[in-house]
Design goal:
single chain, 126 residues, mainly alpha, 1 helix, rod-shaped
C-alpha cells in the first residue's frame, strides 16, 4: 500500500511538474502576446500620427488650391484689363496715325502752295 501511495505521490509530483512547465509556457506565451499588443499599440500611435500629418497636409493643399484659384481669378481680371488698355492704346495709335497723315498731307499742300507762289514771284521778277 505504501508503494502504491508513493507511486501515486510520484505521479502527482510529476503531474505538478508538468503543470508548472505548462504554466511557464503559458507565461511565456502571455509575455509574447503582451509584446505583440505593445507593438500594435505602437503601430496604432504611429498610424494616428501619420493620419494627423496627412490631415495637416490635406488642409495645406486645400489652402494652396484656394490661393491658386484666387490668383487665377485675379490673373483673369488683369488680363481683361490689359486687353482693354491695349485695345484702347491701339485705337489711340491708329487715330494718331490718321491725324499725323492728315497733318503731313496738309503741310505738303501748304508747301506746294508756297512753292507755287515762289515760282509765280520768281516769274514776275524776271
Amino acid at each position: 500500500m505504501e508503494k502504491v501511495l508513493n507511486k501515486i505521490l510520484n505521479r502527482l509530483d510529476s503531474i505538478d511538474k508538468r503543470f508548472d512547465s505548462v504554466d511557464k509556457r503559458f507565461d511565456s506565451v502571455d509575455k509574447r502576446f503582451d509584446s505583440i499588443d505593445n507593438r500594435f499599440e505602437s503601430v496604432e500611435v504611429r498610424l494616428g500620427t501619420l493620419e494627423e500629418g496627412q490631415q495637416s497636409m490635406n488642409l495645406r493643399l486645400d489652402t494652396l488650391e484656394e490661393g491658386q484659384q484666387s490668383m487665377q481669378i485675379e490673373q483673369r481680371e488683369m488680363r481683361k484689363e490689359v486687353a482693354f488698355y491695349y485695345g484702347s492704346l491701339m485705337k489711340k495709335l491708329d487715330e494718331t496715325k490718321l491725324e499725323l497723315s492728315s497733318e503731313i498731307k496738309h503741310v505738303s499742300n501748304v508747301q506746294k502752295q508756297h512753292q507755287d507762289v515762289l515760282e509765280i514771284l520768281n516769274e514776275k521778277q524776271q
